[in-house]
Amino acid sequence: MEYSHFSHHHKLKIHQVTEGQTIRCSGCEKLCHSTVYACWQCNYFLHDHCASAARYIKKHPSDAQHPLVLIPKPTYCSGSFICNACGETGSSFSYCCVLCEIDLHVHCAFLPLRVSHKSHQHELKLYLGVINKKDEVPDEFCKICSKVLSLRNFCYYCLDCEFGVHTFCATNEVKPELYVVDDSVANTEATSSNTQAAAVNEPTAEEVIVELYNLQLQMQMAQGLAQMMASFNPSLS
């Protein structure tokens, strides 16, 4: 059986990863260990979590005003992004809001809001980091791995005990069902007539993506124009 996915122009077939195979997901760039959706012609693979990820998240706590849109490749000139959640770079799937400069790995977008860990007696709450990049926030050290913990990124924290840990030191769990998406095109199978019917007056995922791309292009053009004017008139810079 073949499946369609918006990120790739060829049909994908289910493949069971066998022992000794090294297959890396083209969505999250992590190794695949079980079933994947594969295009062998392009060496393009998606494990289930990336293949079934919702096209956009309407109410993510990191951005209450705008939807986060799933895009297959970063739109930045560098061809990569820095995840606001974990602080690591990525060059493939991400949930983003170009207006708020938010970029999240697929797995980072669905972290549980609260977790328990054997290293601490209290429940840990997901802390979303510093929104205003100009704010000075001192780094701490993760209470589990003892490495630097930047409070500009997501972390799990017990405020009463000032106990903070990296997100993936605290848990490997992700919850794709955490946020309700009205017109998600999550299933990789051919979209049925029921899922094609979006709510009245609600934009489709494609319309949201096009609008955000247009806004990003306008912002880039405005920045380029400002830089060009400043080069002609140094007193403006």
Automatic annotation (TrEMBL):
It comes from the Eukaryota. The keyword Repeat applies. Residues 66-109, 118-170 form the DC1 domain. It holds the Pfam family C1_2. The keyword Ubl conjugation does not apply. Keywords: Repeat. This is DC1 domain-containing protein.
